[in-house]
């Protein structure tokens, strides 16, 4: 087995590190603190070593990556700081990949596509990265930088793009996470951003980790972006219904947060202000097509029943603790 460096220990980084260790790889996780993320639990994972470093420092990251077979870029600055800090992070990841010869596996999202003229058309990897907002542009530019270096023969790079995370370990973000699950488990009504009946793609976190691990060892995956296998789109209301049924608290009312109140709250909340750029993802259909990945590789989306059961169990354990 080989050495993998995972940069970041948020939900995706933690899940990827755990999976790689279970597969028998040597795994090191690089974060600013050098400690497991609190929301992932303080208990160490066998086979995972934690390193304290600033991933945007090319010298520090390059030193940590020497000997690695793959570098998994799962870190992200706080959302309000993306435009300012993302370029340095991507440049550092690319420098470490070039020095070490490791495959650079970037975890991407769907912001780079921007709003589509036809929201009923599922997103595919061949769409142009035409985002008009700063967060979408900076994410698109990061991948274009890595791809240009790949095409120049200086690094080997691949990007794996996921829709909104869902599942055990996902606590940040309001959709089907911290804003929804605690109340849902008590049978309380939940309030959500956007249209609760619009079709939306939810990418299950363990499937993200499995895709990141798979493409690292698949040379034919490198040099392009892929969508993580994701189940057919389901509205927020439908997903809340599935979760509440599993929790035994159904029916749970789902209400749309007032756009007026959200606008007012944005005056005081940097996070809500930043979310204005991507509100279109929840105000209308937002779906992803992962058929290209499924035609080429082995990872498939976890069945919905398993997703829901594991998510409810994880949140119950977390809230009980």
Q: Can you describe what's shown?
A:
By secondary structure, the protein is an alpha/beta fold. It has a domain at 3-165 and 202-230 and 287-302: 3-Layer(aba) Sandwich (Rossmann fold). 39% of the residues lie in helices and 15% in strands. It has a 7-stranded parallel β-sheet with strand order 3-2-1-4-5-6-10, with helices on both faces. Strands 7-9 form a two-stranded parallel ribbon. Strand 4 (70-73), helix 3 and strand 5 (103-108) form a beta-alpha-beta unit. The protein starts with a strand and ends with a helix.
Short description:
The chain has helices at residues 11-22, 58-65, 82-100, 134-151, 181-184, 205-216, 236-247, 259-265, 270-275, 280-283, 291-296, 304-320; strands at residues 3-7, 26-31, 48-52, 70-73, 103-108, 156-161, 164-166, 190-192, 202-204, 225-227, 254-256.
H/E series, N to C?
Answer: EHEEHEHEHEEHEEHEHEHHHHH
**Structural class from helices and strands?**
alpha/beta
**Shape call:** globular
Please identify, by name, the CATH architecture of the domain at 3-165 and 202-230 and 287-302.
3-Layer(aba) Sandwich
Which homologous superfamily in CATH is the superfamily of the domain at 3-165 and 202-230 and 287-302? NAD(P)-binding Rossmann-like Domain
Largest sheet: 7 strands, parallel
**Low-confidence runs of at least 5 consecutive residues:** none
Alpha carbon gyration radius? 19 Å
